[in-house]
Design goal:
about 130 residues; alpha+beta; HIT family, subunit A; 5 strands; about 25% helix; globular; binds adenosine monophosphate
């Protein structure tokens, strides 16, 4: 069974318009905004509008329409932010942290899109 969804998480509040964000893109089922603590020149979070805790929850429970919309929204953000390879874009990395070992801070599915500089090794040593 999936982890229970907490509708008081900060991204649920952003989706309800209760706290502000710096919006990048909105589609029928997805929403994207700049991360408040940029780790790279481009650092955007893409989230589904639906109440999903993590990617495994989304993959199991989301409709095909939501999954297609979310996947395409991620690609659209990469192109819009100028990091999609080709046409001058230098490339990007997408990360989705889940659960305790993944060090997920906000329990609403989000994909980090980072780019705009060389991003280095995929994983740091464990802390
Ligand atoms: P994580 O759950 O560890 O994958 O990361 C959560 C991300 O959410 C962090 O990179 C935070 O900087 C970001 N974050 C937290 N609160 C906000 C907010 N109000 N607006 C935008 N980004 C946020």
């Amino acid at each position: 069974m999936s982890q229970a969804y907490d509708d008081q998480n900060v991204f649920a509040k952003i989706l309800r318009g209760e706290i502000p964000c710096n919006k990048v893109l909105e589609t029928e089922h997805s929403f994207a905004f700049h991360d408040i603590s940029q780790q790279a020149p481009v650092h955007v979070l893409v989230i589904p509008k639906g109440a999903y805790v993590s990617y495994d929850d989304f993959a199991l429970n989301a409709s095909e329409g939501e999954i297609v919309d979310f996947t395409r929204a991620i690609g659209a953000v990469c192109r819009e932010m100028g990091v999609a390879p080709g046409n001058g874009g230098g490339g990007f990395r997408m990360i989705s942290n889940a659960g305790e070992a993944g060090v997920q801070e906000v329990p609403h599915l989000h994909v980090h899109i980072t780019g705009g500089r060389r991003l280095g090794r995929m994983l740091p040593k464990a802390d």
